[in-house]
């Protein structure tokens, strides 16, 4: 069933012109930057939060009887442990027009891409789980747009916008989500496993905490190349993105320890959107201030408003510069919020409507736009032009994905380490099934 506010295409809508018309109509109904396209009330409500276990068709579990004890509200902006990232005592000057519009364009690109993914998913163009990033754009844009192309990013299953911000072309990502051979992983990665060697996008990971050791390894190889191999060009920085629920996993702490011990050039960026599927952050974590968890390892810990791209970018500048000059890792907690359910299969009935409304008022795209208008850095026409440009980019990405071919069946046997037909690999490195003398007398393979 289509989500509320997302139109269905007519059965005969097959031409490029009609598809484009459909997308335009759906856009007008469901966005441009309108959060919470799916919103219903739920009888499961307790202590100001919703609690539910989601599973394969399992009924919702009754909420716990113990009331939720919320910690004191954290101050807006940045808070850090002693002797962490040095910050100037005065507020940074506002961004100039060029930088501000660059940040706005990247966030709009991410939001528009995700909105289009919702349309395509409900039209049956995408399969499996699709997790959207709406609302969290300030984190991706704030950090990744300060990286170089040769820096590394490790993502999660909510990886589309990280890839977009890193520079992977939208058409390649859309084609990947369509399962087409022109995708960034030739149609084999899908929504949760986006990878690009060209852009050092080290992949999305379907299971939480999987990407943190990979990111730590990437940071280690940079340090090893520089210090053990004498490669003076090895100054790349790695960012590992993950959610609040991931910080309850052991590999998170193991990697914090290794990174701090060896002063690896890595940022651990927590996208704390308050919900791990249906589990509220304050129910699952004994110390909810995640940024404090770096201090026992001697690592700087910072808390920042993840709905404000300018504050995120300020932290990113300092933490990335710190890592690049060899001063070691930083743990950053970005308090943010997703404007859709956990995935497009989630009706988003767990969260309190008041909670969602509160964060909707802090939409990062609208905040940046208002900031630039108030400071005279841009005019309304500048934003209209960017919105139009991005719509054209995303429309072209969909048309490219739809016109692209599916992978050949022979691709199934590629990039598979063991012999896919069961005969093993010979001493020459070739599959033994290719040797007629070895397969003689066996069934056809």
TrEMBL record:
Keywords: Oxidoreductase, Pyruvate, Thiamine pyrophosphate. Residues 106-408 form the Dehydrogenase E1 component domain. Its cofactor is thiamine diphosphate. One of its GO terms (molecular function) is pyruvate dehydrogenase (acetyl-transferring) activity. The keyword Ligase does not apply. It catalyses: N(6)-[(R)-lipoyl]-L-lysyl-[protein] + pyruvate + H(+) = N(6)-[(R)-S(8)-acetyldihydrolipoyl]-L-lysyl-[protein] + CO2. Coiled coil: none annotated. The pyruvate dehydrogenase complex catalyzes the overall conversion of pyruvate to acetyl-CoA and CO(2). It contains multiple copies of three enzymatic components: pyruvate dehydrogenase (E1), dihydrolipoamide acetyltransferase (E2) and lipoamide dehydrogenase (E3). This is Pyruvate dehydrogenase E1 component subunit alpha. It comes from Klebsormidium nitens (Green alga).
